[in-house]
Amino acid sequence: MQEIRQAVMAYYDAGAEGHKQLAKDFFDSMDANGDGKVSLDEYLQFLRQQGYTHLKSRNFFDELDRNHDGTLDFEEVLSLYYIIQTERPFCDGCDVFLKVLFFTCAECYDEGSSRSFNLCSECYSKRKFTNHQHNTIVDNYLLLAHKRGKPTVVQLNGSPSLDHPINYFQFENRMRPNGLPRADQMRNIPNDHGCVRNNTWEHVTFTDSHLDGHDRLNCARYLALNQSQ
């Protein structure tokens, strides 16, 4: 939350007077008794009236309350104002506020869905969430790469086994972190079954002994052979 506070104050200090007044009006509308601070009761009542039910919890109030005095001052409420205005996400598995890195459904994002699907790292890794109709889940940094046309998506069912043929995106994810050539830089790209076929690539030449009975190359064989070149 500290990084958000710093960003919020930077925006506020550099903002136009009209924008600063909107932030002050937001604080005043929450400070029902006008004492210059927002109590938990004032906080909950305001969020209930405005329909921000996903923010209406004691735990989130405590996160905003940086000095733990049981009330929110102007700067602390300013963080809430920023979170509301920017529609910062919460985990759809456990409702925790997602501060930095989180996982999101790229397909919902691509479809322009009004309802995004977001997960914290724990809910994603331990599958602590209800069923979702899509399976292309990426972290928010990979989503930016995905939107730039880079094939870096990760399937929800987890990383592929090294003992089986893998599909294009899985292959791409295995190769690139090891500094190996991308699939689209090789002479032969995956066929319609999602597996690399044939025995001659731009960077490495294979013999039949490196291929399985279906004329396919799996990831383990590729890595082992590449290390021996």
UniProtKB/TrEMBL annotation:
Q: Which Pfam families match?
A: EF-hand_5 (PF13202)
**Residues of the EF-hand domain:** 18-53, 58-87
Ribosomal protein keyword on record:
no
Q: Does the keyword section mention Zinc-finger?
A: yes
Q: Which CDD domains match?
A: EFh
What are the protein's UniProt keywords? Calcium, Metal-binding, Zinc, Zinc-finger
Q: Which GO terms describe its molecular function?
A: calcium ion binding; zinc ion binding
Q: Under which name does UniProt file this protein?
A: EF-hand domain-containing protein
The lineage, from the top, is: Eukaryota, Viridiplantae, Streptophyta, Embryophyta, Tracheophyta
